[in-house]
Amino acid sequence: MAARGTAKRAAGAGAARGSEPQEEPPPPLQAVLVADSFNRRFFPISKDRPRALLPMANVAMIDYTLEFLTATGVEETFVFCCWKSAEIKEHLQRSKWCRHTSPNTVRFVTSELYRSLGDVLRDVDAKSLVRSDFILVTGDVVSNLNVSRALEEHKLRRKMEKNVSVMTMIFKESSPGHHARCKEDDIVIAMDSATNRVLHYQRTQGLKRFRFPMSLFQNSIENVEVRHDLLDCHISICSPQVAELFTDNFDYQTRDDFVRGLLVNEEILGNQIHMHVTTEEYGAHICNLLMYEAVCSDIIRRWVYPLTPEMNFTDDKNQSYTHSKHNIYRGVDVSLGHGSMLKENVLIGQGTVIGSNCSIMNSVIGQNCRIGNEVTLDGAFLWDGVHIADNVQIQHSVICDEAEVKEKVKLKPHCVLSSQVVVGPDITLSEGTVISLHPPDEEEEDDDQFSDDSGVNKEESKVKLKGYNKKDVGSEGRGYLWKADDKNEDDEEQRQSLWGPAMLSEEESESDSDLSMGSEEPDSRAASPQLDDIKVFQNEVLGTLQRGEEENISCDNLVLEINSLKYAYNISLNEMMQVLSKVILEFPLQQLDANLDSQNYFSALLPLLKNWTPLFKNYIKRSSDHLNALFAIEEFFLEHDSLCTSIAKVLMTFYQLEILEEDVILNWFSLRDTSDKGKQLRKNQRVSPRSVEFIVRVCVLQQLLEGTAEFNATVTFCGAAAVAQ
Amino acid sequence: SATAAAFIHEIRGSGPKRPRSEDTARQTLSLLRKIIAHGRWGWAGELMDLIRTEGQRMTAAQPSETTVGNMVRRVLKVIREEYGRLHGRSEESDQQDSLHKLLTSGGLSEDFSTPYPSLRANVIEAINELLIELEGTTDNIAMQALEHIHSNEVIMTIGYSRTVEAFLKEAARKRKFQVIVAECAPFCQGHEMAVRLSKENIETTVMSDAAIFAVMSRVNKVIIGTKTILANGALIAVSGTHTLALAAKHHSTPLIVCAPMFKLSPQFPNEEDSFHKFVSPQEVLPFTEGEILAKTNVHCPVFDYVPPELITLFISNIGGNAPSYIYRLMSELYHPDDYEL
Predict the structure, then answer these.
(1) Exposed, middle or buried, A606 (CB in 10 Å: 0-12/13-18/19+)?
(2) Does A146 reach chain B within 8 Å, measured CB to CB?
């Protein structure tokens, strides 16, 4: 233990530690590493190998994460594994992390029952594994960050304000469009620039406009920064409270749930989240194959220095490389044929043999691969033991362990050949082809709600082994086609899941659609605020009335709600009247069927009108209100030609219910001609026999009205006439 | 052991900042001393194997940190000497054999297999002496400053070197002169150098690297530090030094290199690859640039190779030497069998 302490000081990792010798030594820094992604994004690749062990530049991802943790001064790491935990454990036990000289003690916690990050943290709490602040990472983070500064800040904050700040999230500054910025993970953050407190956190995938609550800018914080130039490193410094909070809120599944929940309940629980932004150091999280490609190329281009291949930080004999110009890395015993060119950014693992006249760039080649003559590799990621025959062309594809590509095969971008697949000879795989030895339907059988990488039995697949489709994999091929890009939208979407942004696990897509729904409204509002406020208001009123109808809410309460809406959207009384009439008239159409005929329409409308009479009475007081209501009714019937026959009945009902006064109706008739003509002119397409008929009828009505004193009778008559017709 | 792992971790540059050569040298020595004191070995040959394997591990971790290898070689030489003394060999024969002796001796090589109980203490004692010698290197170099810097001279330097800083400060105590510092982009250590010098009331000017050639005609002397002196008298120095040296050659300005002896490495520049050190391109083109980074290759080399013919004089802790004399110094410091670890 003493030796470890000195080692740490020598490593300089505890720069802060030296400055406070009197205080009691801080507890060793701990980390929780979640070596499972709890989704199937990397299927079918992760069927053979857990995601944490996928090789990045020939080194397993989890090694990068552990190296990052060790370099940053972590002394005890809990590795939580679920899917293929035995393999992860075996890998780590062979690695330098489990040697006794390792400054970072690695402990395993495995369980088949983990379904999410939430489960893991609840387990952390249940077993009370952490004693003080800890670092939370997933097993697919590549970073050369030194979190000691962020950690100091975090501790200081917790000292100043007792346990208010529970988490510090670490972000890397990077402008939008950067290839290492994962579209899925794009976020918009509002922060208090003085204290680095996170005020608002939102994923932006699929959103065109973002909505921020007004309260953000109205409270006492002086400077609020809204940032979209941040890359989430998926590294967070958590206090032990985080684990407790996960226990308290059993519905928190992901870190996002946690952040969102905490921000929403900030005032109630009094917990805050802070952030730390780094500009110089590197940190990225591999969530799909596009990110895999991006981060791999960043490693080769030395962005993650000192975690570059020739550093051999895993201390593995097979992993020693030399680095030469143009970022060419060569392992031991690599042979390169006559005329072959390694252009730039190439990593070649130990024992690989490359034939003559090959051209290789931007590629990673694993150990003990055999590559034939005249092969072109651009952006290819070959894992260990891959065989490539002559005259093969591969672009931006991933080829897993011991796969074989026969003569004259062409792989278009974004192809994936998983373990031991054979393709060819003489075949071209179209863009986005995924071939695996596991039949694809196998997945559907055990399709399980939680979309985690849970058990798929190998034996099972062997039993129902079917023949391979020669058209897909070539005459000597072995493997099943998973998803081909055959212009089918569905397939397109699935392809994206492995490579690109569109894929979402169930819960995520749900929450995202929620968000995008929410964004629709401000969308239109921003375009032209005045007009669209009314539209939004109209929708809201409709919603309110629907609810009122379903739940039988009394009219007084409805009035109250509508009033508050009115103020919320700043609606004038005139507009209010129009909207209300329109909504109520449209109500039967919305509720039942858009193609009602006028008879049914009226019968559906009548009870509603009767119910909501107090509503109208509340708003229709002055004569101008009456007129406005009438205009709205008129407009509605002009828009719905097929229903125009029922206008008379509707008017009559309004009159009978004493909503509209006789004088006003008569007044309206006198105004009618001009306004209606104006409308006719504006909407040329409305000049149909129907509408002409409508105007005629209204004229008849008017004449009748003039002739008779008893309005009531007239309307009844008119209604009868309309029905007769 | 854990200490060795931590040390390797640090020289890799994973630590918070780049280590100084002098610290690296001292740490290497203390680490080796620890291995000698606590390691399991019976006789000198076994100890040398132990030191060699440890040395290989450490040098492989970061080939550009030549100081580590140099100190390992120094320790091996110390063991040879101490063994020789105990073995009853004269000081004379310890020196490198002449060609005639080599021919007549008939391939008699030592096997270092006789165990001596006092060897451990003797070697540790000798290493302690080495450590003391290390302490004084910078001062020894600085002491020679007055012989080289005269009044009202214009001195040019590049980047930041602790040795050069001490050298110039020492001269400034007696003489008045002007210093021009090339900033040494992209890390711009030159800025720090200028700040430190101006605090000592030395008239200091910082300029961009591009101005080196233009300003050179006004300069009387170029004084620089280096990372490594190679066996042929060439330098591995901070990038930008080659430009400076070529400009100095063009204007026939003397180029003086201040470097302690522990930077002298018995390696030749044909092992090109091992001296490369490319760090993250962040300083050249920041990560925040966005889209363009996927389409460009950005390199950020740390070191330059400066051929020996561009160098006028080396000033080390044991005095001034011409590049052509380096081979001799080398045979004094290291045993030829240890050139290759």
Answers:
(1) middle
(2) yes
CA distance A441 to A454: 15
Which residues partner with A382 through β-bridges? A365, A399
CATH architecture type of domain B2-93+113-135: Up-down Bundle (1.20)
> Does A322 sit within 8 Å of B287, measured CB to CB?
no
Q: Are B245 and B311 in contact (CB under 8 A)?
A: yes
Which residues in chain A come in under a pLDDT of 70?
1-24, 441-466, 483-532, 591-596, 641-642, 644-645, 669-725
What is the C-alpha separation between B232 and B230, in angstroms, rounded? 6
Whole-number percent of chain A with pLDDT over 70: 77
How near does any CA of chain B get to the CA of A183, in Å? Answer: 13
pTM of the model: 0.72
The DSSP 8-state label assigned to residue A230 in this structure reads E
pLDDT of B84-142, one tens digit each? 888 876 555 545 556 666 666 554 556 778 888 888 999 999 999 999 999 999 999 99
Chain A from 257 to 296: CB within 8 A of any B CB: 279-280, 282, 294
Q: In angstroms, what separates the C-alpha of A324 from chain B's closest C-alpha?
A: 6
The superfamily in CATH containing domain A323-436 is Hexapeptide repeat proteins (2.160.10.10)
Of B5, B14, B273, the CB nearest to A323: B273
A346 φ, ψ (degrees, to nearest 5): -120, 135
Mean pLDDT of chain B, nearest integer: 87
CB contact, 8 Å: A149 with chain B? no
Chains A, B: CB contacts within 8 A come to 116
Decide if B6 and A344 are in contact by the 8 Å CB cutoff: no
Report pLDDT digits (tens) over A114-158: 888 888 999 999 988 888 889 999 988 999 888 888 999 998 988
Give the fold, CATH level 3, of A30-285. Answer: Spore Coat Polysaccharide Biosynthesis Protein SpsA; Chain A (3.90.550)
